[in-house]
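Convert to structure. Protein one:
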Amino acid sequence: MGKTTFEGFLGTYKYTINSGDKMRTGTFEINNSKKSGVANPVILSFDTSIPDNLKITASKPACLCEGENIILNTIAVEGLEYQWFIGDSLLTEKSATLSTTAAGIYSVKVKKGAIEITSPPFEVKVNPIPEVSVIATGDLSFCPGGKVKLNANVSNDVSYNWMKGALRINGSVSSIDVEQSGSYSLVASSNGCTAKSEAVNVQVYSTTDPACTTGIEDNEISWQVYPNPFKGSFVLEAGMLSNEPVTAELYNSLGALVKNIKLNQVSGKTTISVANPGFYTLRISTGNEVKIFKLIGN
């Protein structure tokens, strides 16, 4: 075994070594410049099981998304001992292949007897999966003519598409107004990593649905609510009031009580003023009966 040094250009070199009747040829690489201060150790041996060039290769590009794994490989030769490192930390793998999901600078060392060779560093990057969700402003169930605003909750560096089922309906806009039934979601992408939000299901009632009718009859009392949709106020009309106590309450789309309504017992018509547009639920309780109206304020 001997040692020698030389200076040359970066690149790949061929070599031939002779000793008696033994000869070996091969190549080695000089990858680090003199200015870098990083050495280019080259070990040449007549033992052909010791590789000339020790490198790490990967099963795919070494830029992953969270949760993905990558297979790192080096030359596999029987009789060599393998040690894998991430930074300065020794890993438990002792073969020519390493499976990992972690970002970091990897290297591998092979040993045979007194000879040790360490590969150049190999970097694995891991990008985060983008966080994305849909936030609804308003009631997700409403009568024809209504709508609900869906808002994109994503970070600034994420591109995304609005989806209705599997169909792309819009690009990276901050919100959309939805007037049709369906399952709505966002598909977001950042640094090649993709995520899909939980779906938001919107239901538009049919025009004949009880929630969208303007009158409901029950025994002695028939109720009418008009107009619907309304602007500023609507009328609650009772066809015939009994002696039973009646409670009328108006709730907003968040389920908060907006007002208790005192009915006009003389005319049977009560005008209810509502300052803010939105989706409302009118709840009328008479004895053991409860009637519900869905209202849209413009």
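Protein two, convert as well:
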Amino acid sequence: MTSTAPRPVRDIDLINPDKYVAEGPPFEAFRRLRAEAPVYWHEGRGFPGFWAITKCDDLVRISRDPETFISSKGVSMATDPANADQLGAAGRMMLMTDPPRHVRLRRLVNKGFTPRQIAALEPHVRAIVRDILDDVAPRGECDFVEDIAARLPLAIICEMMGVPRADWHYMFELSNRTIGADDPEYQVAGENQAQTAQRAMMEIFGYYARLVQARRAQPTDDLVSIITHAEVDGERLTDEEILLFCLLLILAGNETTRNATSGGMLALIEHPDQRARLLADPALIPTAVEEILRWVSPVMHFARVAARDTAIRGQPIRAGEKVVLFYISANRDEEVFADPDVFDVGRTPNDHVAFGIGEHFCLGASLARLELVVMFQELLRRLPDIEPAGPVERLRSNFIRGIKHMPVRFTPR
């Protein structure tokens, strides 16, 4: 589908993953679009074009209207809404469902993520963080991503799903290959991006198929048991639906929090005055976590498809056209955030959309907040003088704002 919309700005490329590597996301391009073309027709690259949505108010409005802007035709920038039936198993993931089924699926695992349940996890989360820091503190240096940031969310989601500790690193590797398949470091030799991601997903499905079989025979209180034995509309989930649920939980449960932790630590390193504020006043850390989420925006975009003809800011949007919601841009919207390009650990209010909004608001938002607060409380207390020990290596991706490696050093303790 080709739009006849005017193109008032030039040289905009929000697709090429290389543009997200060297210095991070193309913030200048997003700034221009917010000012000159907040609803911008972007040509595709081997896939249909889309409307780039860069203003916060428009993103919120679209997210809160799941009848007009649906998820079941694809949530990726690269999907073709006209061929949604060819998405295969991924097309039946909870992420790609619309109400009322989406709501029913969320209810299956909601009780594991209630504020009360998450608050009860705080002592356990803190114990894990302390173990992580006990391991690295005597060294005086480490790769912050692999040795610190990745370990906490991976441990928590694996425990919640009932994955044995011996398999945690395997889940880490499979997550990297699924989410980071655009990055040469994670691509399997001789395979392209799609093949690498597909192979990793098949391995995840194979792993959880065995775990589901075990939980059918002997249920426990973990999330895999809950999903395996749950009913939606009076029917048990199919094996495929269960495996897709497991895929979503393991990817979302460790990737985004890992990248928020790494990106947040980098922001504190690059803004020593803000780190000094937190060292002087640790009570600010929960507020700082919200600023880290806004600043990093670990998931940079999701897509929706117009189910009927509509308009945004007077720009007609035809049924079947994609809109891509750029959270990374909305979280720098000058009309919502004062001095949006300033990292301010005391920023209030801070109505960021890093967790999304509306029907698809992140299921694990409360858990991610707890993990981030505890991690930074302990990090700043135990390793207050972390500094760079080598170049930061960013993930080659237009979807996840990730850091692959971040060498750091600190006073051994």
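DSSP finds 15 helices and 14 strands in the chain. The first strand starts at residue 39 and ends at 42.
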